[in-house]
Amino acid sequence: MRRRDLLAAAPLALAAQSGPARNLVLFTSDGLRWQDVFRGIDPKLMIAKAAGTAEARHLRDRYWRESPDERRKALMPEFWNRLAPLASISSEVQVTNAYKVSYPGYSEIMTGTTQDDVIRGNAPKQNPTETIFEILKRRWSLSKEQAAVFASWDAFQWMSEKTPGAITINAGYADISGSPRLDELSRMQHQIMTEDASARHDWITFEMAIEYLRLRKPRVLYIAFNETDEWAHHNRYDRYLEMTAYVDRCLGRLWDTLQSMPEYRGSTAMVITADHGRGEHLEDWTSHGASVQGAERIWLAALGANRPPVAQLANRQRDIMATCLRMVGAGQ
């Protein structure tokens, strides 16, 4: 394992409570490659006409640096300059399902199990296993509103819970109300639709989640982005880079929001990861799946209250849930 791809939190990181975290925030960006997170802009892809970057000189000027460390900080400055010093991070977490596609990966993260016999792909199917959101809702005696999922892809409607209606789920183009801002975002999402009827813009998802966080103050919150995967599948590395930079800005804003609220400051565990990896080369970076070498490798960051040391960080995707539960003192 490359030691430069594993980072422990600085000893004098932001003060947090010494005991278990009171809240859990999970964040994923679909198919966001460890290579770009840990190495920055890809030297092979940034000049590839087929990947949409041959003419994107402004992106090369913005993100190219001589060393991988400098490149990753140029692409994701919030993550590497502000969050990484507070986190335990690994670029060598292994997907353990056989399919290396989204639903099996998300299910591993949310249930702590590999369900290859029942979840074989992305087909609509209610998750047969209780998820971490349902577990914490029950253990903490939470209301439905206190365990919330905001996702760009509508598949989270059935992936995120075993019992329909157990938790709050806003996914795809689902409307939501409760404040003038939420009403506005609900209307807006139908005016700026993507070409995929099953997934809205990540901007809508994030703005809804932030407003809900401020309004309802959930103890368990999951934000799931989709557009990094969409642009990769379209072989648009330029757009993928722009979305990666947007993910970074959102992570910084999410952390700042949590630290600005007394309900979360110093008492919140934040876990960031992806559902699957992708290929590393020009011919396969757009893809993932059982036959794509490298699609089994993802990355993970854990920060905030009760952050585990690197040695105790999950190294398999199905163990991410256990890491989350330990951080909040609700081990399996």
Report on the architecture of this protein.
Helix 4 (77-83) runs parallel beside helix 11 (237-260). The chain has an 8-stranded mixed beta sheet with strand order 1-3-8-7-2-6-4-5, with helices on both faces. The chain has 12 helices and 8 strands. Mean pLDDT is 93; it is low at 8-17. The two termini are 28 Å apart. The longest helix has 24 residues, at 237-260. It has one domain (3-7, 31-322): Alkaline Phosphatase, subunit A (3-Layer(aba) Sandwich). The protein is globular. It has helices at residues 34-39, 57-63, 68-75, 77-83, 102-111, 132-139, 156-159, 180-189, 202-216, 227-233, 237-260, 320-327; strands spanning 6-7, 23-29, 87-94, 147-151, 168-171, 220-225, 268-273, 297-304. It has 332 residues and is an alpha/beta fold. Helix 7 (156-159) links the parallel strand 4 (147-151) and strand 5.
Strand-helix topology:
Elements (H helix, E strand, L loop, with lengths): L5 E2 L15 E7 L4 H6 L17 H7 L4 H8 L1 H7 L3 E8 L7 H10 L20 H8 L7 E5 L4 H4 L8 E4 L8 H10 L12 H15 L3 E6 L1 H7 L3 H24 L7 E6 L23 E8 L15 H8 L5
Helix pairs in contact: 3-4, 4-11, 8-9, 10-11
A few lines on this structure:
With 332 residues, the protein is of the alpha/beta class.
Please state the second-level CATH architecture. 3-Layer(aba) Sandwich
What value does the average pLDDT take? 93
Q: Which oligomeric form is depicted?
A: single chain
At CATH level 3, the topology is Alkaline Phosphatase, subunit A
Q: What does the largest sheet look like?
A: 8 strands, mixed
What is the highest CATH level, the class?
Alpha Beta
Strand content: 5-15%
Side-by-side strand order of the widest sheet: 1-3-8-7-2-6-4-5
Number of domains: 1
What percentage of residues falls in helices of 4 or more residues? 25-40%
* Backbone CA Rg: 19 Å
Order of helices and strands: EEHHHHEHHEHEHHEHHEEH
| CATH superfamily descriptor | Alkaline Phosphatase, subunit A
Described by the principal axes of the CA atoms, the overall outline is globular
Q: List how many beta strands DSSP finds.
A: 8
Structural class: alpha/beta
Q: How widely separated are the two ends?
A: 28 Å
